[in-house]
Amino acid sequence: MNNLDTTNPNNYNYTTKHLELHILGGIKLNKLESLRITLSIQKPNAHNILRHSLDLYNDNQVEKFTRTIAERLEIGTSVARKTLQELTHELENYRFLLLEQQNETNKPFTKELNATEIKSAETFLRSKDLLSKTNTLIGKSGVIGEINNRLLMYLIFTSRKTNNPLHCISLGSSGVGKTHLQSKVAELIPEEDKVEITVLSANAFYYFNRTELQHKLILIEDLDGAESVLYPLRELQSKKRITKTVVHKDTKGTTRTIHLTVEGPVSVAGCTTQESIYEDNSNRNFLLYIDESTEQDNRIMNYQRLISAGKINIQEQIEATQLLQNVQRILKPIKVINPYAEYLELPQSVFKPRRTNSHYLQFIEAITFYKQYQREKQYDKETGEEFIETTIEDIQEANELITEVLLRKSDTINGATRNYLESLKAYLKEQNQTTFTNAEIRRNLRVKESTLRNYHNQLLAEDYIKRVKKSKTKSYCFEVIDINEYKELKEQIDTALEHCVTEITSQTRK
């Protein structure tokens, strides 16, 4: 029996009693309708070598080459023909083997949990104070600080398994850890459930397989590097599918129109320093402002020192990460019904309330979905569809987590300017003064002159600060108009959310 030797991928060897053949450059896997090869053929231990390129599936080429072999190598045509037929059979079988291996390699990895892992994950999901314990476990996995943001992000990432996933954008100055936070929380999501993107061309999204992105988490390291795909991303977020019509020429040369469709839903997360540029995207997202406080700086630097000193329990981090990944794996798609939804109203101060209201309700559903192992499964009497219901506790926990998000969505200035204004207020309170100058703030808060000018222009335009003339020097300085405006706005939001819970409680008692 003749065997095909494929030890050298660029020079297959096939030897018979009468002929020695070498297939140079291997074979192509992308066109199964042809078997084009570059062949060198000779008698064993002979120096007369015949080289030729042909398609072994083309009978005319094979027959012509058979006669050439017989003439040039002085061998019978029946021997040459039989050798080429056997070679074709061997190459055909080997190509199918390579294709199977390729499909197996490209097959999405899905970890099969053993009984112990399933039991541990289920026990965790049934535990009391689940969100609090989840947040603690996120901290143990290596996410430092960002107590509220990290749990919010984890729940947003979890919502990818629902029919109405949530999305988020992390905002903050350069170098404060936006990408780090996103990547560390994303490590808690199974590899098979996420797609990480650094740079993507404008049309790349349309060439995924139709269902390849369904219920996936799409992570964009920097939105500045993905501007070309922001439009299809927005459509995928809103409509849960994108379609592109292109002209395609088939194998017969006929031109026809085909539709490339990619199905969602997906959950999208990205990072940027430029909040205003991505307004269309931010309307569809939860905006998570990174903690840029001195306290957070100290927490991170202390953690870095402990890592360098070898005093961090790496095994504990790995175990926490694996448990949270396994928790994600055992969460099953199930419909969530919120029987209290009609009593939930957003504060009047929130901008673009229609979309924000939708996000609020979806976030409550995400918490209920995460607690599915603590909920009794119910069935629709008409359709038989399985579902679980939201509880008042879910709404209260959602309100606690989402207050900061609603506060930012109620603000008339962007996040960076708000952070500056609150730092300014703290400085003035500490110095026991009401007025300030540009030079004083640049020196004490260490803000660049151009950045400070931008902040002050926006604050002046929105009437948060005003210019005042000093009576002695006749020079101008600035004064904060209302030192308590942000605190009062937060109290309004808290009151509105508490009123909703009170209303629900009173209705359920009737």
Task: Explain this structure.
The strands form 5 sheets. This protein has a 5-stranded antiparallel sheet with strand order 1-2-3-4-5. A 5-stranded parallel sheet has the order 7-8-11-6-12, sandwiched between helices. The chain has a 3-stranded mixed sheet with strand order 13-15-14, covered by helices on one side. It is α/β, with parallel strands linked by helices and 510 residues long. It has 16 helices and 18 strands. The protein has helices at residues 59-73, 77-106, 115-125, 130-140, 147-158, 178-186, 230-239, 279-282, 294-308, 314-330, 353-370, 392-409, 415-431, 438-445, 449-461, 485-509, and strands at residues 4-5, 11-15, 20-24, 36-42, 50-55, 168-171, 194-197, 216-220, 241-249, 255-263, 266-272, 286-289, 335-337, 378-379, 386-389, 435-436, 465-469, 476-480.
List keywords for this structure.
510 residues, alpha/beta, 5-stranded antiparallel β-sheet, 5-stranded parallel β-sheet, 16 helices, 18 strands, elongated
What strand order characterises the main sheet?
1-2-3-4-5
Q: Which regions have little confidence, pLDDT < 50, spanning 5+ residues? A: none
Shape: elongated
For the termini, the CA-CA separation is: 87 Å
Question: Count of helices?
Answer: 16
Task: Tell me the major beta sheet.
Answer: 5 strands, antiparallel
Q: Roughly how many Å is the radius of gyration?
A: 32 Å
How much helical structure, as a percent, in the residues? 40-55%
Amount of beta strand: 15-25%
User: What is the β-strand count?
Assistant: 18
Mean of pLDDT: 87
Overall structural class, as computed from helix and strand content, comes to alpha/beta
